[in-house]
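Incident review: delayed structure delivery

Summary: a single-chain prediction request sat in the queue longer than the usual turnaround. Root cause was a stuck worker, restarted by the on-call engineer. No data loss occurred. The affected request and its eventual output are reproduced below so the record is complete for anyone auditing the incident later.

Affected input:
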Amino acid sequence: MREHPLTMAEKECAMSHLCCQECDYTIEDLFDLVFPSDTETKGHLCMIYTCFLDDSKDRDQEKVAVSAGFVADKENWGRLRAIWKGVLNRRGLAYFKSSEYYSLSGEFARFRTGAYPRPTGREAAQEIRAELQAKLGECENIFGIGIMVVLEDFNKVLSRPESDGVIPPNPYHIAFNSVMHQTANLVRSWPGRNKVAFVHDDGSDFDSLRASYQYFKEKNPKSAKMLAGFMPLDDKDHP
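Output delivered after worker restart:
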């Protein structure tokens, strides 16, 4: 039997391994791994979301880069998961992805068939999205933090010689780092002993974002004390 608790690196390795398994585990399983119940620290998870100010007008991030974080504790994430899954099960969907909703593909492909002629198919999809949005309104204890970087201003700062080695060349990383900083401040303000772990969709940019997370910890030791890891999750399995 192991006498010492897992290190953070070991927890992240175990979490990455768990995420790759073909099994259905809950958000509570993630909390129990990152924040053992025998500690006095209350755990929180912050879901990082890469988004655009207007998905249809600035998809290539020519004007702004936006990062958002949504943070809550075990009970509130678990409550959202149960409510969210309830809607999907009732509607016959395995998961919800905005890209599939807009294109009527994937889980929304059936709304493009003859059984749902336009505009009926689009209206049926909108009903599902509206119901999910309404359910989000019932989860008042999930807090949101959003950071926007105006690219014209960012490029002016980046062009200055003193920015070399200080400002990352990717503007999204600036927004992402700011979300982590503000989230750490928020969690620090809550009563008790708190820490927060970050999760992000396991996409092609995950490794670069995790490197940015590690760099942020090195350069911000005060905030680093509040941080408990950065891990991937499949957004199809975890609402």
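Verification: The radius of gyration is 20 Å.
Action items: add queue-age alerting; document worker restart procedure.
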